[in-house]
Structure formats: C-alpha cells, structure tokens
Design a protein that fits this description.
The chain contains 8 helices and 14 strands. The protein is of the alpha/beta class and about 220 residues long. The longest helix is centred in the C-terminal third of the chain and has 12 residues.
C-alpha cells in the first residue's frame, strides 16, 4: 500500500494520499491546502485519483475540495450528516468568521460499514460521530485514518456546531477501541508526541480513550 502524508492549510491538516501499487488507483483524504502540489505529487507517482474523501465537514478539512476536484476530476465523498450540516446557512456564517467558505456539495455520500475500494485495496467506513455528526474513519490493511476523531494522545474538540463529548466517547468506545492493538493510527493533525501511533498505545496512554473504555466497565 502506498501512503503519503503532507501537512496543509492554515490549520495544519494532515492530508493523506493512499494508493494501490498494483492498479495505481488512489484516494486523497482531506486535501485542505497545497492542492496543486498534491495533484502534482499524485501525477508524479503515476497514480489515478478516483476519489476525494473527507473525514468530516469542518472547513479546515474541506477547504481544498473544489480545486482538487477541478484539477483531478475526482468526486468528493463524505458522510451526509456533515455535508448537510456544514453547508447550512447558519453554520456557514459561523465558519465564515474564521475565514472559511462552505464546501460545495459532495458528489456521493459514505455510509457506515461501506467498503471503499481503491484498486485491490479495501477500506471500511466507520461512522464515528462526536467531533461532528458525520465524522468517519477509514480502516483497512492495518491502518486507521481517524480525521479529528482520535489524535495521538488526544481526541477532537466537541464545542463546535454538531459536536458532542458524550457521543465522541461512545464512538471511541464502541467503534475504535475494539480494533486490533497493532492498528496504525493516522490522525488528522500532528498534535502528539509522534506523527502516528497505534490503537494499543492509545488505549494505554490516551486519556480520552481510557475514559471511554472505563465508561463501559
């Protein structure tokens, strides 16, 4: 599996290019800046972009959707709960104060349990609401792309529109903690002591995940 990451945008989002070495098909997750450079990197590696995937609808993660789609022709995929919420006029006004415009409509919605095929690769869509209603993670081939659901040593904030701390804890407990301990965590921001981690390490060291697990006992 091909995995390339780059920190992009004003709020330092981690964008991931994930590609199949056999078919050269690829997706890009959360292209939130440096779109021309990302598109050039995809082309240089001989990859064909089949989708732009958003882990959630916060504008720091969707800011590059329009230009990336224009440059590559790839469709935009996200969960419908976030596509609808973050294009709502009242919510859009909230984020305009941060300097962000609402993203254009998604081309297709991703649903919980769906298998996202990337050439010979397959990733399961895991709906993890809490940071936002439509947050998702992508799980496959020993890796979990977590967006802002789970960071290294932390978890996403829940004080923005649509956020819920209790819902986030439930997602961490029910959807994340049960994954294999050796699963590599690829977070949406590099906020921790290392750029990546594992589920096992986070279950031992991450206070949010520890709290979520404790609640189920």
């Amino acid at each position: 599996m091909i995995i390339r990451s780059r920190t992009v945008g004003a709020l330092a989002v981690k964008a991931y290019i994930i590609g199949c070495p056999e078919t050269r098909e690829a997706v890009i997750v959360d292209p939130a800046g440096s779109e021309r450079e990302l598109a050039a990197s995809i082309e240089k590696e001989g990859l064909h972009l089949i989708a732009i995937v958003n882990t959630h609808g916060h504008p720091d993660h969707t800011a590059g959707n329009a230009l990336m789609k224009k440059l590559t022709g790839a469709p935009v995929l996200m969960h419908d709960a976030d596509d609808r919420l973050f294009r709502d006029p009242s919510v859009a006004t909230f984020f305009r104060a941060w300097g962000f415009e609402p993203h254009p409509p998604a081309d297709r919605y991703l649903s919980d349990g769906e298998e996202l095929r990337v050439g010979a690769l397959s990733f399961r869509v895991i709906h993890t609401p809490g940071h936002s209603p439509g947050s998702i993670c992508l799980y496959g081939h020993g890796h979990l792309v977590t967006g802002d659901t789970l960071f290294v040593g932390a978890a996403g904030r829940t004080d923005l529109p649509g956020g819920s701390f209790d819902t986030l804890l439930a997602s961490l407990r029910d959807r994340i903690a049960s994954l294999p301990d050796d699963t590599i965590v690829l977070p949406g921001h590099d906020y921790g002591s290392t750029p990546t981690s594992t589920i096992g390490r986070e279950k031992r060291e991450n206070s949010f995940l520890i709290q979520a697990i404790t609640l189920s006992m």
